[in-house]
What we know:
single chain, 17 strands, alpha/beta, 5-stranded antiparallel sheet, elongated
Amino acid sequence: xxxxxxxxxxxxxxxxxxxxxxxxxxxxxxxxxxxxxxxxxxxxxxxxxxxxxxxxxxxxxxxxxxxxxxxxxxxxxxxxxxxxxxxxxxxxxxxxxxxxxxxxxxxxxxxxxxxxxxxxxxxxxxxxxxxxxxxxxxxxxxxxxxxxxxxxxxxxxxxxxxxxxxxxxxxxxxxxxxxxxxxxxxxxxxxxxxxxxxxxxxxxxxxxxxxxxxxxxxxxxxxxxxxxxxxxxxxxxxxxxxxxxxxxxxxxxxxxxxxxxxxxxxxxxxxxxxxxxxxxxxxxxxxxxxxxxxxxxxxxxxxxxxxxxxxxxxxxxxxxxxxxxxxxxxxxxxxxxxxxxxxxxxxxxxxxxxxxxxxxxxxxxxxxxxxxxxxxxxxxxxxxxxxxxxxxxxxxxxxxxxxxxxxxxxxxxxxxxxxxxxxxxxxxxxxxxxxxxxxxxxxxxxxxxxxxxxxxxxxxxxxxxxxxxxxxxxxxxxxxxxxxxxxxxxxxxxxxxxxxxxxxxxxxxxxxxxxxxxxxxxxxxxxxxxxxxxxxxxxxxxxxxxxxxxxxx
Length: 553
């Protein structure tokens, strides 16, 4: 009996102790919930709110008792209410299937007592019994108004930045047209003057003027290319190319500068390197030219040497390494670390003397990266520098025909003899110079100062080809082309767009409107020749507008 009494007493005191521990735990949790800055709440499996902590007064301006009596529509905005109802539906479905209900974490918008809205972060945790039954849902609601305001401000700032970038792009396109059009007239006039009888001194002066015009055009192109690269709008094209021709093209462009300085220029390809590749020859030449021009600019004596080799370890042979080594001023370690960044120039006498925009190396880096390569520099001040870039260019398949070169100026009279051309250009100087160039080639030329006049002319006169400026007053070239293409009798009339823009999407719009070809201002004499050859009637049949015959943009 004594043993039974002692055992019973122990059970009684143990149960009492467990109850006391449970009561203390409940008090502790209630104190924590009541003193928390976040709102703590509990809800029964049937959706009835069983507890809301006092922090709701600060959060919503109402007492816990008032909050517990409010409906879900009085608590949450409609969008957030739908989110919560969906969550409870998911909880109910899980309970019916005998699964553990999901937790919830998301942003919900609450109503304040004054009718204003504010955002919160809500966490909800289903509490389960030992046998897997849902006892209640424990939740925590935290005010994130400041965070949302910060996020909204960042979003607005991003939208403003995007609008600013769009405005910058639009401005660059506009300023490109405004600069390129008179540049076209200058270069075309120079070409026209060079085709006449000149004294040696006059020819030298005109050649210098042409070189200066090309230099200015290079700066314009750098600015436009930088904008396209920043917006991801520069698209590379894959076509057969010969690395030898790329080297020759770059060498031709810098030969005069090297000759004036007395620099020895050379270019060589390592033995075993396949020179026939697939890639964008124009952009490859541009990347290399930026390095070579930079080397020539900062080298006063000695040499500039270009080498092309395969990248070590590349068994496929697709990766090429272009190196440009010079005996110029060299770069400091600090400048080497940032020389490929945009608008970066050295802070020394050489840099101040030669000037420049500081964009060429940055563009070279971006182009190399677009061709799955990279860039770098090795240099020592006073000794010289070796700039390099790598690109991935697949080898061209055997038997693939390389594109033919440019037509020479001597062939132009044969190509354009008797051609009846309508030249549509609003700029008087440009119109007059182009007319003279076309007439020099043997073409008969009519002119129109805007698209409206052009539409009237093509409906009353048969032309073999139309050179159409795209940006004109009254009626632009794009709209005029669309109107012309609506006439079944004019479906096959070759139309060559004259554009001062440089964005691919602009050219896509031109093609969609019905143009056959385009010339980007300012263009050289040989570019005009090539465009004429591509679009001249053959055996009395006018060129087709089939898109497969269009040149790559």
